[in-house]
């Protein structure tokens, strides 16, 4: 028995060296790019072995956006035949995502907003990627990298996202003799009023300067939130020791809400109390409003509908303390519990998706009904301006500029509940004239602090 065991061991050793040599020979036959290379702290794959992992994205897997991401994953598999990636749609959020992770039923790579990562990192939901990806820091503007850091650790690599900028009807501007987009609040008000006109002679305006959300809902919170941040207001402040309190009820917060309400009443359509972001996009598309606050999908929306006018993009006008915009950055995170070959494959996928070539593929966009491709998000890296798409469509670089002045829409996990239960309601009451800005924000402060205390 001992002699037979010895021969078995010898046979396995010889076979292992033979397979390793064959694998090395095969690897030398194909070029390895820096984006593709295995890093020193990532274990090389065993020759001939295929590791299966899954990735869950924010959108449906069979949607235009899902299909666009699948094309990128296909390129990854082509370059990395030792890894196969199943793509799943419809990422979970909040407690549902945490339950999925802690039950061990989560996909290996998750597309998660930075707010979700921050909220769940304290629950030990994600693997610390700092040792593997800290070297990527210089590929991002500091503001975006900081959003990705929680307690000094990196729990997700920035991937794709959006900023909100001022999208405007250049044709309407030229007809009104307006030569450039507004750069300040005063200019925004002046331009919006100038573009609010009666075009059919019935004595009532039928064209309006800007579309603003008045419907009680999430869109109103980020629209007002931008103005609040531009005025220097904050949603919450840190009292120390990890304790927070609502801080929006200040002179800056009130000034921003009063200006938003003024624009809303004097330069937006009269039915704006019933409108969210989607309805505003329709108004802009139909030339009811001349300006809108919109993400990178706002420009292709006009392209898809036959280019009825020339659309342009400018940075959001600066308020009393400067520019600020809503930024959503999706991170690529690995849930706790992933280990071994699957962990190494997951890190390899994240490294590929964060590479410049893969980021450039994002701008290829999703396929429209006409068979053409349209961008739906922007890459997050800061070195994309020399890529072909941005050279051909520099208007999208404006969205990348916004990455440098983000405001945090969800500063603490309790803010989701605050927004749902009181913030959206209070803003709607103010713009509808049922409540003053001071009273509305006082309501948010009082009810919001109660929610924070109960969550302890």
From TrEMBL:
Residues 28-47 are annotated as: Disordered. Keywords: Signal, Transport. It comes from Cohnella luojiensis. SUPFAM superfamilies: Periplasmic binding protein-like II. This is Sugar ABC transporter substrate-binding protein. Residues 1-20 form the signal peptide. GO terms for cellular component: cell envelope. Residues 28-41 have a biased composition (Polar residues). The keyword Nucleotide-binding does not apply.
């Amino acid at each position: 028995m001992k002699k037979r065991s010895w021969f078995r061991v010898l046979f396995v050793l010889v076979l292992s060296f033979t397979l390793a040599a064959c694998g090395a020979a095969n690897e030398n036959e194909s070029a390895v790019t820096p984006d593709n290379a295995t890093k020193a702290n990532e274990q090389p794959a065993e020759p001939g072995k295929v590791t299966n992992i899954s990735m869950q994205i924010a959108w449906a897997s069979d949607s235009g956006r899902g299909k666009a991401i699948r094309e990128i994953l296909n390129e990854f598999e082509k370059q990395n035949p030792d890894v196969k990636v199943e793509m799943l749609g419809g990422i979970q959020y909040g407690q549902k995502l945490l339950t999925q992770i802690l039950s061990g039923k989560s996909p290996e790579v998750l597309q998660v907003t930075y707010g979700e990562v921050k909220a769940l990192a304290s629950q030990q939901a994600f693997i610390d990627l700092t040792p593997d990806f800290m070297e990527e820091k210089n590929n991002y503007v500091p503001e975006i990298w900081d959003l990705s850091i929680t307690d000094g650790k990196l729990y997700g690599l920035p991937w794709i996202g959006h900023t909100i900028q001022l999208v405007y009807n250049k044709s309407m501007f030229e007809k009104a003799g307006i030569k450039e987009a507004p750069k300040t609040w005063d200019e925004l008000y002046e331009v919006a009023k100038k573009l609010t006109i009666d075009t059919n002679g019935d004595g009532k305006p039928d064209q309006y300067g800007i579309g603003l959300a008045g419907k009680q809902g999430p869109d109103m919170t980020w629209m007002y939130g931008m103005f609040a941040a531009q005025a220097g207001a904050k949603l919450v402040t840190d009292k120390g020791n990890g304790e927070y309190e609502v801080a929006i009820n200040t002179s800056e917060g009130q000034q921003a809400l009063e200006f938003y309400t003024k624009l809303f009443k004097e330069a937006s359509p009269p039915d704006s109390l019933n409108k969210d972001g989607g309805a505003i996009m329709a108004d802009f598309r139909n030339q009811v409003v001349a300006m809108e606050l919109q993400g990178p999908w706002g420009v292709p929306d006009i392209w898809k509908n036959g280019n009825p006018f020339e659309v342009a993009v400018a940075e959001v006008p600066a308020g009393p303390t400067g520019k600020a915009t809503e930024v959503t950055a999706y991170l690529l995170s690995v849930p706790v519990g992933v280990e071994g070959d699957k962990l190494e494959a997951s890190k390899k996928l994240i490294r590929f998706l964060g590479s410049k070539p893969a980021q450039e593929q994002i701008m290829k966009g999703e396929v429209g009904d006409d068979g053409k491709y349209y961008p739906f998000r922007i890459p997050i890296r800061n070195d994309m301006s020399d890529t072909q798409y941005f050279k051909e469509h520099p208007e999208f670089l404006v969205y990348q500029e916004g990455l440098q002045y983000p405001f945090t829409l969800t500063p603490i996990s309790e803010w989701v509940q605050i927004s749902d239960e009181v913030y959206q309601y209070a803003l709607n009451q103010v713009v509808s004239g049922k409540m003053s800005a001071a009273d509305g924000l006082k309501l948010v402060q009082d009810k919001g602090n109660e929610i924070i205390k109960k969550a302890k």
